[in-house]
Design brief:
Layout (H helix, E strand, L loop, with lengths): L1 H27 L9 E3 L19 E7 L10 H9 L7 E5 L3 E4 L2 E5 L1 H10 L4 E4 L5 E3 L4 E4 L3 E8 L13 E7 L7 E8 L16 H14 L10 H25 L10 E9 L8 H11 L3 E2 H4 L10 E2 L9 E2 L2 E7 L8 E5 L5 E3 L21 E10 L1
Parallel strand pairs: 2-3, 11-12
Antiparallel strand pairs: 1-6, 2-19, 3-8, 4-5, 4-7, 6-8, 9-10, 10-11, 12-16, 13-16, 14-15, 17-19, 18-19
Length: about 400
């Protein structure tokens, strides 16, 4: 009996030491994550829209969708992504979340990202932007695919995170969309913020690595089910929103200062930020209002359209037994950019074009939830249109 108990204790200690070593490895190698996103497309991309001086300009159809594809906790990912590919024909730009890769010592050992990019290319999405793969852990899981050239891609890694998100290198990707040599650019951002429903007050800073490490260690070892995403998640999300806004103000502000020096298609005519913000406008109204104020002058399209008063359900907890399991997590924020130097065009949201809807799995055996969708999230579509200034 004593021998078996001693063996069990040794196994527990060995597992604890291994987990601590992995934790230290992840923290130490956080500085090894590449700082640039990967951009793909023809080396000399043709600008695909011919725009005459008169007549209507084309509307661009956007889709943002969390595909539900983490390394742990999801199943039938390839089958569900195959179904997604069958839905995308009418769109021009698609922003996806949870298209994860998993890396160990800088080598990708798991993921569907490259496969999905190839399938999207077959559907005419010639250009794509993805975040860098880290040295260890999941990448940010973000992907933008487009029928039109994507330029000036930027990877914005967040400096604040908590809990299990220490294994996922969360951030945002941005790129400028060019649809014609006579139209200004549209800046598109895609993000997925900190997960969880934790506290608002920030008693510790998750980037204080040893406190964050203790939190994550005891979280995994003792009480994974209590709050696997950490206990300070609301404050972390607000910090990440602030990082997005700082980046937009810095890059867009510089671009606006230089508008008079830029060619027509190098000028900036609008900003669109989409993604899974993990901020529930239905049950976390104060957190949502704080994010909305921070993102100003970008405007929440769902709120502006009064779609469920800005609280459209976009996520259903797979284990939900009541209305609490229905949440509003996925958004599109937009702002038109107008300046005296922007003489050729700007961008506007096409009124009435936004809607939130589920994508049905073509085979119910791998469908998610009672409705057998291809994800635990619903999709959000909208149209943005260039207009002559």
């Amino acid at each position: 009996m004593n021998d078996s108990r001693s063996s069990s204790m040794l196994l527990v200690r060995a597992a604890s030491v291994a987990l601590l070593l992995l934790l230290l490895l992840a923290v130490i190698t956080s500085t090894c994550c590449p700082s640039r996103p990967r951009v793909s497309g023809p080396s000399s991309p043709p600008l695909a829209v011919n725009v005459s001086q008169h007549g209507p300009l084309p509307s661009l159809r956007f889709l943002t969708f969390n595909v539900y594809g983490p390394f742990s906790g999801s199943s039938n990912v390839r089958e569900r992504l195959s179904d997604l590919v069958r839905y995308v024909g009418k769109y021009d730009v698609i922003a996806m979340q949870e298209v994860f890769t998993m890396s160990v010592f800088g080598v990708v050992i798991w993921g569907h990202q490259r496969w999905l990019v190839d399938r999207m290319r077959e559907q005419g999405f010639t250009y794509h932007v993805v975040p860098p793969d880290p040295w260890f852990g999941q990448n940010a899981g973000l992907l933008i695919v487009s029928r039109f050239p994507l330029t000036e891609a930027v990877w914005l890694p967040y400096t604040d995170w908590s809990g299990i998100d220490m294994w996922t290198w969360k951030g945002s990707i941005f790129a400028d969309l060019e649809i014609s040599d006579r139209l200004s650019r549209l800046k598109v951002g895609n993000t997925h913020l900190q997960c969880g429903k934790g506290r608002t007050l920030h008693s510790i800073q998750p980037r204080n690595w040893w406190l964050m490490g203790l939190e994550a260690f005891f979280l995994h070892l003792s009480s994974y089910a209590v709050n696997s995403c950490g206990i300070y998640t609301r404050s972390v999300r607000q910090s990440q929103v602030s990082e997005i806004v700082r980046h937009i103000r810095e890059t867009v502000g510089l671009k606006l200062q230089e508008q008079h020096l830029l060619c027509d298609r190098c000028k900036l005519g609008g900003i669109l930020l989409v993604g899974d913000l993990n901020i529930d406008a239905r049950h976390q109204l104060k957190a949502y209002q704080a994010a909305n104020r921070t993102l100003n002058p970008l405007e929440d399209i769902l709120l502006a359209e009064q779609i469920s008063k800005g609280q459209a359900v976009s996520f259903t907890d797979r284990n939900a037994t009541d209305i609490i399991g229905f949440e509003s997590l996925d958004y599109a924020w937009f702002s038109s950019v107008r300046s005296q130097q922007l003489a050729n065009s700007s961008y506007v949201y096409v009124s009435g074009s936004a809607q939130v809807f589920g994508l049905k799995a073509f085979n119910e055996t791998y469908g998610v939830g009672e409705n057998k969708f291809i994800s635990d999230h619903l999709a959000l579509e909208l149209q943005i249109k260039p207009v002559n200034a």
